[in-house]
Fold these 3 entries.
Entry 1:
Amino acid sequence: MRIDILTLFPEMFVGPLTESIVKRGREKGLIDIQCHDIRDYTKNKHKKVDDYAFSGGAGMVMTIQPIADLIEKLKAEREYDEIIYVTPDGETLNQGIANRLSLKGNLMILCGHYKGVDQRIRDHYITKEISIGDFVLTGGELAAAVIVDSVIRLIPGVISDETSALTDSFQDGLLAPPVYTRPAEYNGWKVPDILLSGDEKKIEAWKEEQAYQRTKERRPDLLK
C-alpha cells in the first residue's frame, strides 16, 4: 500500500509513522508512506498558503493553488483509490471504514488547517471525507495519523499474529471481552476459572457472552 500525506507540518508525523506497528509495516516493505509539505508547492514568494475567506469572518482558509498543484503532480504519477480529506464534518471513522481502506492500493490524505481548505478542492478532488470524532483539532495531522494506524494494522503481515486484528473491538459489531494474563492470582485477585479450564468451547462461549454484556453496558448503540 502507498499512502501520500499532504500537510503543512510533516514533522508531526515523525513519531507516529516511525514507531510500533507502522514502523514494522514500513520495514517489511508492506507500506510506503510519504509526507509532502504543501508549502513547497505554493507560487507565493512568501510561501503563504492561506488567505481571508470571501465571506468574511474570523479565521483563514488554505488556498487552492498549492494543494491543487500537489494533487495533480501525485495523480500524474499513480492512480489513487481514495483521496481523503480529514475534516470534522466528514464521515466518522469506524472499523468498517478502516477495513475497507486497508484493501486499497493507493491512498492520499489531505490535512486541513485554519478554517479548512478552499471548497473547490473538496468539490473537484476529494473522494472521501473522514472525521475521527465530534470535536475540532488544530489541524488534520493527528487525525490523519489515527486513520493511517487504524488501516495499516489490518494489512496482512504487519501484525505478527494476523488473527489478532480480526478479534479487535468492533470487528464483529461488539466490544472485545476482558483479557487476562499470568499470574493467575495477584493480591488475591483471580482470573476467572473458566479461562484456566482448558475447555476451548466453553471459553469461546464465555468470551462471546462477555463481549455482548460489555457492549450492552458501555455501547448499547452498537447493538441497534
Entry 2:
Amino acid sequence: MSQNPVRPRRSVLYVPASNDKALAKIATLACDAVIIDLEDAVLPAEKAAAREKLAGILANRPARRCEMVVRINALTSQWGADDLAAAAACEPDAILLPKVDTARDILEAGDHLDEAFVPDEVKLWAMVETPKALMNIGAIAELGRDAASRLSCFVAGTNDLVKETGIQATPDRRYLVPWLMQMVLAARAGGVDVVDGVFNHFSDSVGFARECAEAAAMGFDGKTVIHPAQIEAANAAFAPSVAALAEARAIAGMFALPENAGKGVVVLGGRMVERLHLAQAEKLLAKAAGIGA
C-alpha cells in the first residue's frame, strides 16, 4: 500500500487564483487544505494572469499546517502545459489534475514532474469527474500503491458528473451515490484519500451538514468547499468522534499489554477484537493527532 503520511483533509477549500480578496484570507482559515484554482473558477481571459500569480501566492503560504494544492487546466487544453510547469516550479504540496480519464493521464503528468526534477514530496491529486474516469477508476487507483506515481488523493467532481451523464441532481444525491461509493472503494484499494464534491448552496447550512454527515458515513476523508462558512461544519463531520477516539485508544492499549504480545485476537468489553481493528484504531489515532484532537 501507499506510504503517504496521514494528513487531515476534512475541509478542502477552492480559492480562485484570480481572487485577491479570497487569497488574502487563506492564512486566517481553519481548512485542512486549499486548492488554488486555475481551472473552472478562472475565466479564459484571466488564466494567463492567474498563472503568473502562483509564485507569489505559494511564497506566502500560511505558516500553519495547511496543504496547498494547485488545480491546473487539463493538459489537453491550451493552458494545461504552462499551468503544470508553473505549478511545478512553485513546489506546492500537490497538483490537482482535472478531467482525468485513465491512469495514463496521471503517469504523463508524473513524467513531466520527474523530468523537471520536482521533488517527490509534490504529489498528484486527481479529479474524478468524467464517465471514463469512473469506468477506469480501479486502474487509476492502483497507481496509489506505487509511490513513484505521486498519486495521493481523489477529488469527486460531482457537478461535472451530473453534467456529463444527465442524471438528476436530487438533494439526497440518490443517483450519484453508487458512483461516490465506487470512488471510495477504489481509493481504499489503492491506498489514497478521497474527498467529496462541493455543495453548491453555501447558504444552506443544514443541507450542507447533512451532506457532510452522509459523505463521512460513506467513508470519504473530507469534503471540498466553496465558501469559508462551510469549513467548520466539514471539520466537525469528518473528525473522529469522542467515542470513536476512546474506543481506538482502548483497542491500542489492549494490544500493547505484555500478555497480548503476538496475539491476533483479544477480548475488549465483551467482544472479540482482531488486529485489523488495531490497524483501524491506529489510523484513526494518527488522523486525530494530525488535527490536534
Entry 3:
Amino acid sequence: MAQTTPRSARPRDAAATKRAILDSALVAFSRSGFDGTGTREIAGNAGVDPRLITRYFGSKEGLFTEVVAELFRTPLIGASGTNRTAARDSLTAESGDPDPMLLILRSAANPQAAEIMRERLETSSQRQLAERLPGDDATARAALLLSMCTGVRMFRNIIGDTAFTHADVDRLATYLERALDAVAAGDSEQDRTSPR
C-alpha cells in the first residue's frame, strides 16, 4: 500500500491578513462613510472571512479607529509655504481614494464615528500641525486649515459643484495655497506685509 504524505496546512500570515483588511477599510470608509460601510464588504474586498475583522480589530468601531489613526497619523497640511500639495490634493482627490477629509465628511453624521475622529484629530495631526504654526491661536488655526480643505472636498466630491468641473486646477490650487498659507502664517504674515 502506498504511503500518503499528509498535506501541509496553508501557512497563515496574520500581519498580511490584518493589512489587507485595513487597506480595504481605508477605501470603503473614505468612499461610503462609517454608516454606509459593512464589515462583509470590507472582508470581501480583502478576500478574507468577515470573522477575522472581529479577531484582529474587535469590532467595526475598532477597525474604524485603526483607519482613522492611519489616515490622521501625520499632519495633512503644513506651515506657511508648504501647502501646495495639500491645495492640489483637495482639488484632485477622487471619491474612491483613501482620503481623511472625505472620511470626515461621510462619517460625521454618526456620533460614535465623529467622536473617534475628533479625538484622533485633536491628539495627532491637528496637534502636530498646531505645534508647527507660529503666533497666537495655533490650535484654532490648525482646525481652520483642516476645515478649509474639508470644505473644498465637500463642494467638489460630495455636492459635485459644477464650478470645479472645467476649472483650471493649477490656478485654483494657487488661490487655495495662498489662503492656507495666510492662515498658517497667522499674525506673522500680517507683520511682514503691513506698512511700517
